[in-house]
């Protein structure tokens, strides 16, 4: 018999009308199509991009012939790992190897590595959340891949920074998002993006080990999918 975890911490952003999405994406469309009081049953229809809310990327996201999510076993999305406390971080700060090296002894081969920047406090339709979030330098992504990470989670919209142009906001970084993603994806290290509540896992510590689950739907041929991410302690 398995031991029940003492605590299950939800690391997942909600999916509902008017949630913040990547600025170049259309908003989600969530509508009730049937109502039990009228139709005998209730049903909804939801339309959104696969990289919406808390989600995981597959190699196909940046590699034309890369693996899709369905090519990984379910065990790829569950595992032991560690949260590293990088907070507080500056606006649009680049996470470098220098940020990660102090935690070298805390990362074990095969770990899910979660990076707490504290940026989930800005979640919403804010400049900080949409455009000015911390992000990984390519060398930092390679460092985590070389350290044996199987997945890397962030409490920001992406492991890569805001590199595009919008009418009201220009690029926030000179680090190309491909440079942030490719060292991970080329090594089958899966980015988990838009996490929250990593501070609850840390519970005041600089690092904290836990078991993590971030299972996507078994959708075929996709470059990503929303997940329900949780930590078990």
TrEMBL record:
One of its GO terms (molecular function) is arylformamidase activity. GO terms for biological process: L-tryptophan catabolic process to kynurenine. This is Cyclase family protein. It holds the Pfam family Cyclase. It comes from the Archaea.
